[in-house]
Specification:
The protein is of the alpha/beta class. It has 2 domains: 225 residues, 3-Layer(aba) Sandwich (Aspartate Aminotransferase, domain 2), CATH 3.40.640; 97 residues, Aspartate Aminotransferase, domain 1. 40% of the residues lie in helices and 15% in strands. A 7-stranded mixed β-sheet has the order 2-8-7-6-5-3-4, with helices on both faces. Strands 11-12-15-14 form a 4-stranded antiparallel β-sheet. A two-stranded parallel ribbon has the order 1-13. Strand 14 and strand 15 form a beta hairpin. The longest helix is centred in the C-terminal third of the chain and has 19 residues. It is globular.
Length: 437
């Protein structure tokens, strides 16, 4: 078997595991998960079984019961803050209690979480670092990539403040130039738009994999490939993609990819993921120094050598309890299967689009093309200010959605997660119908 065949077979095996295809009714295989950690055993296998019907397929009603958010409101805002399932909450609480009882430094336990993330994203573990959120990862990117006065950084007008602000801040400190581009809201022309925007001065391209505004899915693989050809650094904001759609970083090959643990991964707040290419790790040093950034340190001889791995950004004492909760969230996502999750999100989004398409007075901002959209739908209703409308919907109807103010859209975003149901969508559509009467 040649090297490419071996690689393809390995990737196929990985995808089969992550996408949930390995289950196929063969529950005995569940006793051999890729991550054989000591605390992973019986309870996790029982949870996997409990989420499936007799044919071995995911039962979304059972999945919903693993979350408690539905008991208090109709929640469609996982794009801002995804609630954690009970198993994640229990993991965090267990480790907080353990830390209180034993007062142990658990930094070494972070390795297991890095391994899970690396496997989930299909990259070597040395390229994964744990951050507090996607914004921290983007700040690391902005201060790691070598930039000089006059260098150009391209951003889209649909970027979140967390992805854009770190670069805008460099205008004054480094004298870089920011170029803003308008994306095609239909999703069909964005590769061409990006190619046209790039100039001889362009040093960095910063884009969201999935935009926080309309849920537009960008052709990141093709964009990154073009950047690599032109010698341009690609920094991708994955806050709205990791956990919602399948993300294979070995396939995408960006220079930087950041993600949040507390959105579509349903991990605790204060967790995030940083991917950094091997080339960038080798060429740069961490932007801060301290315990765990070093490969070698000796105060007496004033020796300091930095690690050549992305975990060098996990400096100092960390909140290991919540990070271990993120590891459990990755398990939870992997056990369901990211392919099944992506399909479910698109199913709910499509159902919602179909329901509102017959309502006059509601403008759909999100693309119709299924290749350019996933589990986010953004709509606009003329009249009342979007902040006032969102506040009233949650106060009077218990419907939690997010107002979209970015790019002056004055719209409302609904995020469809695995704990949402079509019955909930029917209720929201009914209430939105009243809004446009």
């Amino acid at each position: 078997m040649d090297k490419q065949s071996v690689k393809n077979k390995r990737l196929e095996s990985r995808r089969d595991f992550i996408k949930g295809k390995v289950f196929g009714g063969v529950l005995g295989a569940l006793s051999l998960p890729f991550f054989s950690f000591a605390d992973d055993s019986f309870s996790r296998k029982e949870l996997i079984r409990s989420l499936r019907n007799i044919e071995g397929q995911i039962d979304w009603n059972k999945v919903q019961k693993e979350f408690t958010i539905g008991k208090s409101k109709y929640y469609f805002n996982s794009g801002s803050n995804g609630p954690s399932p009970k198993v994640v909450v229990e993991e965090v609480v267990k480790n907080i209690r353990s830390s209180a009882d034993k007062a142990l430094n658990k930094h070494s336990k972070l390795k297991s979480v890095r391994q899970k993330i690396a496997y989930f994203l299909n990259v070597p573990v040395k390229q994964i670092g744990l951050t507090n959120n996607a914004t921290e990862g983007m700040n690391i990117a902005a201060h790691s990539i070598p930039l000089s006065a006059g260098d150009e950084v391209i951003l889209s007008r649909d970027e979140h403040i967390g992805g854009a602000a770190p670069w805008i801040a460099l205008q004054e400190s480094k004298g870089i130039q920011i170029k803003l581009v308008d994306l095609d809201p239909t999703g069909k022309k964005n590769l061409a738009i990006i190619k046209k925007a790039i100039s001889a001065k362009t040093k960095v391209l910063v884009l969201s994999h999935v935009t926080c505004t309309s849920g537009l899915v960008l052709p990141i693989k093709q964009i990154v490939k073009f950047c690599r050809k032109k010698g341009i650094y690609s920094c991708i904001d994955g806050a709205q993609s990791v956990g919602m759609i399948s993300v294979d970083l070995a396939d995408l090959q960006p220079d930087i990819y950041t993600a949040s643990g507390h959105k579509w991964l349903f991990g605790p707040e204060g967790t995030g993921i940083l991917y950094m290419s091997s080339k960038l790790i080798e060429e740069t040093n961490p932007i801060f120094a301290g315990a765990y950034t070093d490969a070698k340190f000796d105060l007496n001889s004033l020796t300091l050598e930095f690690k050549k791995s992305a975990d060098r950004y996990e400096f100092g004492t960390r909140n290991t309890s919540i990070v271990l909760g993120l590891g459990t969230a990755i398990d939870f996502i992997s056990d369901i299967g990211i392919d099944a999750i992506e399909s479910r999100g698109k199913e709910l989004a499509t159902y919602f689009k179909e329901q509102i398409s017959v309502l006059n007075g509601i403008e759909l901002i999100t693309p119709q093309d299924p290749q350019c959209t996933a589990a986010i739908v953004t709509i606009r209703i003329p009249g009342e200010n979007v902040t006032e409308r969102c506040n009233r919907l949650v106060r009077e109807k218990r419907i939690q959605i997010r107002g979209i103010y970015e790019n002056n859209l004055n719209a409302m975003r609904l995020s469809f997660a695995i704990f949402n149901t079509k019955a909930e969508l029917d209720y929201v559509v009914k209430e939105l119908k009243k809004e446009v009467k």
